[in-house]
Amino acid sequence: MKHAFLQEQETVRLLIGTIHDALQEIFAVKAASPAREFLRGEIYAYVECLEILQLCPRFCALGIDYEVEKRFPLP
Question: pLDDT, tens digit, for every residue of 32-52?
Answer without folding.
Answer: 677 788 888 999 999 999 999
